[in-house]
Amino acid sequence: MVSKLSFGVTLALTSLTIAAPGQSVSKRATDPNWPQCDKSFKAWTYDGCYAEAGVGSAFHWDSGLPSDQVTKSSCIAICKGSNFRYAGIKGADGQKTCRCTSFIETDKFVSDKGCSVPCKNGDQGGGLWSYSVFKDPTFSTFDGKTSADGYQYIGCFPDDEKRIMQYSPSMGTGGWTDMTLEKCFAACAAKGYAYAGMQYSLQCFCGGKIRADIIKGGQKPLICNMLCQGTTELKAGDRQICGGSWAMSCYYNPDLDTKQRCGEEAPPESKKEPSVKANDIKTPAAASLAKATTAPPPTAVDLQTAKATSTNK
Predict the structure, then answer these.
(1) Boundary-marking domain end, from 116, 135, 154
(2) What is the pLDDT of residues 122-138, one digit of tens each?
(3) Where is the WSC domain (predicted)?
(4) Which of 167, 51, 70, 58 is nearest to 109 (CA)?
């Protein structure tokens, strides 16, 4: 059971980039909430031709990039911009889609002949029911079970219909009805996502990053005021807060993050990464280096005290 967390989160900002041959990308019209990376970054590697999943999609997020704009570089740039591990292109001629994920929901490799329908510019573009898959080498391999212990509270943020994080995992047995923080952490870690979020007492979300506009808007601690569905019957000290109505309790796991976000210089292998990345926390106009400390997540007792204090004023 997760109790109060007490830790400091060091925030680091850098504006350095590194050149990456073959990864220069021109700007295109994409969702401003999830912009593509238009900086130089380490070249992604081809990971193979994967069959589509039997149920649902093998990839968690549809970028929405128009078919005539789908190329290897544009798809990778979108997935890099949102901090996913994989980019996948599939579809018939004139019906290309670019999708992103941090966990491929299929283990079905197929021959590269199954990914023989090129993009409009001639790039490898998957097939009708198969993906040409590209992988970001700046992510480390991970163990979904042990990684679940690494999430740290970073704040409560207001959400909207476009969502703070892009993926809502299937929760398996029990669904969302017995939701706890641990259950959400386990689901997000199993799929390799550095961010986990809880909303409305039972909704779990995962993502490679948090929308920059949400971070810029700042935290609203007291709007995350709903008990996790699976802890309501516990004694007060063991109850957990799982967001609120259109409010998300957000957590970050540095062990599952990339070593090089969009626009950052790749660090030496031995260098320990900061626990929260700059482009999630600071705007481009911010100082080049800043530090901050995040308070621990509120408990049910904290919220009751805050409410009582507000009422007595």
Answers:
(1) 135
(2) 999 999 999 999 999 99
(3) 150-254
(4) 51
